[in-house]
Design brief:
Order of helices and strands: HHHHHH
Mean pLDDT: 87
Helix content: over 70%
Radius of gyration: 19 Å
Number of strands: 0
Strand content: under 5%
Largest sheet: none
Shape: elongated
Number of domains: 1
Oligomer: single chain
Number of helices: 6
């Protein structure tokens, strides 16, 4: 394992995972089993693989290391992106939900109460701790899964070409 290449791949994959996790509209892809975050792990492993002139078999330990490294980079980059979006747009999710409610003919009272409670909780400003905690749980796990999945395809193509 080459640590410098792993860190570079982790950073590139972390950028992809963070963008897919934090940028509005792009983050809807994560409704499908965190596919955007897994894409970050996959991009990192492909980047790592392409950094070698002679491509070799990628062992599971390398894929695990790259996946977790990508997730950790992604968690902190995502926190920064979330904060920049918060500074520019505030809690845009609440406004989005209010727009949906206004378009509905009949709004269930439970839904109105839930959104009101959410708005009260978010009045304190940007929630550093909970966002970072969520990111540190989800990002390494799903980047790891993405790296392991793409590892199978990379090694399978490598075996077929031999």
């Amino acid at each position: 394992m080459d640590n410098q290449r792993i860190i570079a791949a982790g950073f590139v994959g972390g950028l992809v995972a963070a963008a897919m996790n934090s940028i509005p509209i792009l983050n809807f892809i994560n409704c499908f089993c965190c596919a955007g975050i897994m894409l970050g792990g996959a991009v990192a492993l492909v980047y790592y693989d392409r950094s070698f002139t002679v491509r070799e078999y990628i062992n599971p330990a390398t894929a695990i290391t790259i996946g977790i490294t990508t997730g950790l980079f992604g968690a902190f980059i995502s926190l920064g992106i979330d904060y920049m979006i918060y500074l520019n747009f505030g809690h845009w999710e609440i406004e989005f939900m209010y727009d949906i409610l206004e378009a509905m003919e009949e709004v269930p009272s439970a839904l109105e109460e839930m959104i009101y409670e959410l708005e009260q909780e978010l009045e304190g400003g940007f929630i550093w701790g909970s966002i970072l905690f969520r990111n540190l749980l989800l990002m390494p796990l799903f980047c790891l899964i993405g790296a392991l999945i793409i590892r199978v395809f990379i090694n399978k193509n490598r075996e077929e070409s031999i």
